């Protein structure tokens, strides 16, 4: 996992737009024509194009600035407002008569029915190019890396690209580009491009149907654009990187794909984020793969936070045990996100001093009641107050580590109080689970959880009995 040693400052230049979604359901066909009638339930708008790259960078925790050209219209005003809401620094040129891009998608039952666009696609004026480049020259030293998001809407003209890339290289600033078109020579001098397979085939004029042709395409792109690193995104097959005359393919890690909208933006943003933290290209690509895996599992243009990426990686590689041990602050954010995702959260707690079959059986049953099991673990100090000075046998760190390795447990949170009431208030679980010995007793937190369930213990299995058996063996 990427270790965050600073908050990177990242500059994005490119085509800004609004992605609009009309969400509805379809239950009949129009009598006027053989088309679906969609009953619109809600409308949502998010930043698109370079704006989606920005949203991804903000979600990752970057300080972000953007340079672009907008029209003097209502869509342009809305774009500015949305950027302000995200705390993004803006260096925007308003060009009279230009139409700011808006893409509208009609969605029925989570499927895209149709998309229609309103925009200008002609190149920005020489005056706008001059204004943008002058601002770039003024601000270049404030940023760690430069991302160019080209949606072929006219902002990134060949003249502007040449000026920006050349000037950035003069100050040793890496430039990453999400390219468009069939001539990548206009990006000459960039550190890397992020074309997908189809884009790479068009630009290189090489059909990528085997490993040999993949390498030739990577070499051609590197040569034509004088790149520092040549890579091609291969959809479900991952990302191919040419480094030191060797091709390495970092496999994708997506489990479920619901919508690929904006996945390329996420790759550009996450690569820029990782490289700005001085990570090597292979670790950066691995991070970008994880981020993309999170995003394609969502509907619509989406972003991935560091917490989501960490959680996603943990779900793919259960062996990353430490990732399941969380602080109270962590679990508050996670619980909120789980609720937004409609997950049924189960909570239980205990000392779990010497783990045995009874514990594992109990925890497996607890997990069966919902989607996610959060376990509140008594701290060492808490166990001593409850069980006596000779307990616990195992430290809280050891107990948390062992419990986190169990398949049935999603998160472990250590708490220091005598009861987990405050932790339960933070989690607000759907299901609260306790042992059957609480039958007829008040269960702490039952006033918070939607439902309380009691689980029978396995006969003859307990930590106390295990300790007694050990003591007898020592005599």
TrEMBL record:
Does the keyword field hold Nuclease? no
Start and end residues of each Carbohydrate kinase PfkB domain: 9-304
Q: Which organism is it from?
A: Halarcobacter mediterraneus
Q: Which residues constitute the catalytic centre? A: 265
Q: Cite the annotated pathway.
A: Nucleotide-sugar biosynthesis; ADP-L-glycero-beta-D-manno-heptose biosynthesis; ADP-L-glycero-beta-D-manno-heptose from D-glycero-beta-D-manno-heptose 7-phosphate: step 3/4; Nucleotide-sugar biosynthesis; ADP-L-glycero-beta-D-manno-heptose biosynthesis; ADP-L-glycero-beta-D-manno-heptose from D-glycero-beta-D-manno-heptose 7-phosphate: step 1/4
Record's protein name = Bifunctional protein HldE
Gene Ontology molecular function, alphabetical: ATP binding; heptose 7-phosphate kinase activity; heptose-1-phosphate adenylyltransferase activity; phosphotransferase activity, alcohol group as acceptor
Asked whether the keyword Transmembrane is assigned, the reply is: no
UniProt GO cellular component terms? cytosol
Gene encoding it? hldE
Q: Give any single GO term for biological process.
A: ADP-L-glycero-beta-D-manno-heptose biosynthetic process
User: Which Pfam families does this UniProt record tie to the protein?
Assistant: CTP_transf_like (PF01467), PfkB (PF00294)
The UniProt keyword set, sorted, is: ATP-binding, Carbohydrate metabolism, Kinase, Multifunctional enzyme, Nucleotide-binding, Nucleotidyltransferase, Transferase
């Amino acid at each position: 996992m990427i270790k965050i040693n600073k908050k990177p400052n990242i500059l994005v230049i490119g085509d800004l737009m609004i992605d609009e979604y009309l969400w509805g359901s379809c239950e009949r066909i129009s009598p006027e024509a053989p088309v679906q009638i969609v009953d619109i339930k809600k409308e949502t708008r998010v930043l698109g194009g370079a704006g989606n790259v920005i949203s991804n960078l903000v979600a990752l925790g970057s300080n972000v600035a953007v340079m672009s050209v907008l029209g003097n219209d209502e869509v342009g005003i809305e774009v500015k407002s949305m950027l302000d809401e995200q705390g993004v620094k803006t260096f925007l040129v308003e060009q009279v008569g230009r139409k700011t891009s808006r893409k509208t998608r009609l969605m029925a039952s989570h499927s895209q029915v149709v998309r229609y666009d309103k925009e200008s696609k002609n190149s920005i004026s020489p005056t706008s190019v001059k204004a943008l480049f002058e601002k770039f020259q003024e601000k270049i030293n404030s940023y760690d890396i430069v991302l160019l998001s080209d949606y072929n809407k006219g902002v990134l003209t060949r003249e502007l690209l040449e000026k920006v890339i050349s000037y950035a290289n003069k100050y040793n600033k890496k430039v990453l580009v999400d390219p468009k078109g069939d001539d990548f020579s206009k990006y000459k001098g960039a550190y890397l491009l992020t074309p997908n397979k189809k884009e790479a085939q068009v630009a290189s004029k090489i059909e990528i149907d085997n490993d040999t042709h993949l390498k030739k395409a990577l070499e051609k792109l590197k040569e034509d654009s004088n790149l520092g690193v040549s890579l091609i995104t291969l959809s479900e097959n991952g990302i191919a990187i040419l480094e030191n005359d060797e091709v390495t393919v970092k496999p994708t890690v997506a489990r479920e794909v619901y919508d690929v909208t904006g996945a390329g933006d996420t790759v550009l943003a996450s690569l820029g984020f990782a490289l700005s933290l001085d990570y090597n290209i292979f670790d950066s690509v691995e991070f970008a793969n994880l981020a993309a895996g999170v995003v394609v599992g969502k509907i619509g243009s989406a972003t991935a936070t560091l917490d989501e990426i960490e959680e996603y990686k943990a779900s793919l590689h259960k062996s990353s045990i430490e990732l399941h041990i969380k602080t109270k602050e962590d679990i508050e954010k996670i619980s909120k996100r789980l609720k937004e995702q409609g997950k049924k959260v189960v909570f239980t707690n205990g000392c779990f001093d010497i783990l045995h079959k009874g514990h594992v059986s109990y925890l497996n049953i607890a997990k069966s009641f919902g989607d996610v099991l959060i376990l509140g673990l008594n701290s060492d100090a808490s166990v001593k107050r409850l069980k006596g000075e000779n307990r616990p046998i195992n430290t809280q760190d050891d107990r948390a580590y062992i419990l986190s390795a169990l398949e049935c447990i999603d998160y472990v949170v250590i708490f220091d109080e005598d009861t987990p009431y405050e932790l339960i208030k933070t989690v607000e679980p759907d299901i609260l689970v306790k042992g059957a010995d609480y039958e007829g007793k008040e269960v702490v937190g039952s006033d918070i959880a939607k439902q309380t369930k009691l689980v029978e213990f396995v006969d003859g299995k307990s930590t106390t009995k295990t300790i007694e058996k050990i003591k007898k063996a020592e005599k």
